[in-house]
């Protein structure tokens, strides 16, 4: 039998989506084969997307290849793969704006309740390519809601910082409701939050943010962070305290790859993978008088405000402090020489 | 010492017709009343608030656990001592969660002597280990209130004036064996501004009543295990500060964590323990003297600087800026088919809660979560006008 020469294949450039699909499939199969997945547990992934229109508008001018729709595509690839891992995985997507935070999926406007959680849908759109219906429903709903949110939100007020603390608070309450519902049905639920951050931190949200982080830590909910533009100290602290992963992406176009490789595995599978190492978290606080970052400072014992220099009165709570004065030594009486 | 009139005892008061609280509806079921009672008990904790009172944030607390013969009684399962130790573990964890810059120490008393189980420390691991080991200890002899208070006082009197000095005694016996006059000791405790509270497990003992009244603490006797837990958890919240306590500026160093440092160094905190190996890769460096420590918050052993990290201080902020209780409104007043603003679930309870600032509507579960853990209103922080 003649050995047939292997035909030379014509090289063609794979498009980004094809590469992503191949990667997704191989990664998905690897995870399924190597790790045992507990079927009785529900895994809820909440994705909080930062859709600050000012940053995205500037981004569209800086790098036209990576716009909000491309980012949303990458996020939905990750969401779909999470839901496709087992039937007990659930997804929720929240968009974080500077006016308000909205639940993109599941959305009460569409199903009129929380029908999407149970996987029962009244009219599933026919998607034609044989995809699992839940995935196509999720994609459509997210796209529709995002269009609605971006077109109907008006500019009110003059603050342009993303309300990240508010979105996280809503995510926590939503997770809690699901825990209560499913716990009464006898199922356990594990959840984590993935934050995709674009704009910069807002210093005014510090206290609310810390409250949310501590509440998440108490409920054993991980907070992961995927940062596109500038480093965020608040999110670094959040990931450190709750035990999640923090990653600043070097190339925005490859967002889908980073999401799938780093953020898709859940807590039990992470120790078995080699993931990006933890970053050095800067825990220095800013002093209240100059807003400088200080290492050694003075803390008021009443209101816990931080100062860089000693001052006799606390500016926040207006308590007067006791100043440690050096002790007065009594002068010794000199014996007068008796003049003879 | 007892010029104040004592409050009337329970048996001296009139009859309370407790059965009249339960009312049956037309089908004879008590479901509505039971739900109402559960709902009220959930709301009870949320309604208490200190208001604008200065709280003692940095606390030094000693817990005295009675280990005498009466602790082998089985009225708390499995016996009083084991139940107490189990609740103490939960207490220690919750305490450090709510007061991260405070310290706790443990003392046990039996055989007419008092013994320190652990020193005052700011890290929960040692206390939890000691509590687990104490489960196997035998309960013998009589407790000594004088000796245990004296032992605690020796350490507490050296603590700086701006911290709050407290002792909580879990007392189950009806007797105490003291080498000297306890009323003198009570006077000394009062002059040192040490606040003593007692949780009784058997019955009210007059010496404890006088002790708590003079020093400004509280005295309760527990009825059952859940009541015991409630009384113990009451001491987790920071108490209102004494009017005479000094306020001062405390010098503190804020440390950044260094991972995978280049040189292996002996950690200063490991010098005391002989069972752990003293070398570790990561840790915290004191900003003043660069001595290495493995855990925070701690006082640097070389230069004496208090070391904390910013989240420790941030954990206490919600005591200083407490969230106001929400208004209750019945469901009928709202337009139909409203959703809870926090969790997006349908509102099913008869009573819903409204935030007075932003008029956001929340269901009962979310309200409990907001006031217990979150400490900020989700719809207020979702609007631009929050600070």
Automatic annotation (TrEMBL), chain A:
InterPro entries: TFIIH_Tfb4/GTF2H3, vWFA_dom_sf. Gene3D superfamilies: von Willebrand factor, type A domain (3.40.50.410). One of its GO terms (molecular function) is zinc ion binding. Transmembrane segments: none annotated. GO terms for cellular component: transcription factor TFIIH core complex; transcription factor TFIIH holo complex. Keywords: DNA damage, DNA repair, Metal-binding, Nucleus, Transcription, Transcription regulation, Zinc, Zinc-finger. It is found in: Nucleus. It comes from the Eukaryota. One of its GO terms (biological process) is nucleotide-excision repair. Belongs to the TFB4 family. Component of the general transcription and DNA repair factor IIH (TFIIH) core complex, which is involved in general and transcription-coupled nucleotide excision repair (NER) of damaged DNA and, when complexed to CAK, in RNA transcription by RNA polymerase II. In NER, TFIIH acts by opening DNA around the lesion to allow the excision of the damaged oligonucleotide and its replacement by a new DNA fragment. In transcription, TFIIH has an essential role in transcription initiation. Part of a TFIID-containing RNA polymerase II pre-initiation complex that is composed of TBP and at least GTF2A1, GTF2A2, GTF2E1, GTF2E2, GTF2F1, GTF2H2, GTF2H3, GTF2H4, GTF2H5, GTF2B, TCEA1, ERCC2, ERCC3, TAF1, TAF2, TAF3, TAF4, TAF5, TAF6, TAF7, TAF8, TAF9, TAF10, TAF11, TAF12 and TAF13. Component of the 7-subunit TFIIH core complex composed of XPB/ERCC3, XPD/ERCC2, GTF2H1, GTF2H2, GTF2H3, GTF2H4 and GTF2H5, which is active in NER. This is General transcription factor IIH subunit 3. It comes from Gadus morhua (Atlantic cod). The gene is gtf2h3.
From TrEMBL, chain B:
Keywords: DNA damage, DNA repair, Metal-binding, Nucleus, Transcription, Transcription regulation, Zinc, Zinc-finger. CDD domains: vWA_transcription_factor_IIH_type (cd01453). The keyword Endoplasmic reticulum does not apply. GO terms for biological process: DNA-templated transcription; nucleotide-excision repair; regulation of transcription by RNA polymerase II. A zinc finger (C4-type) spans 286-303. GO terms for molecular function: zinc ion binding. It comes from the Eukaryota. SUPFAM superfamilies: Cysteine-rich domain, vWA-like. One of its GO terms (cellular component) is transcription factor TFIIH holo complex. It is found in: Nucleus. Residues 60-202 form the VWFA domain. PANTHER family: GENERAL TRANSCRIPTION FACTOR IIH SUBUNIT 2, GENERAL TRANSCRIPTION FACTOR IIH SUBUNIT 2-RELATED. Belongs to the GTF2H2 family. This is General transcription factor IIH subunit. It comes from Gadus morhua (Atlantic cod). The gene is GTF2H2C.
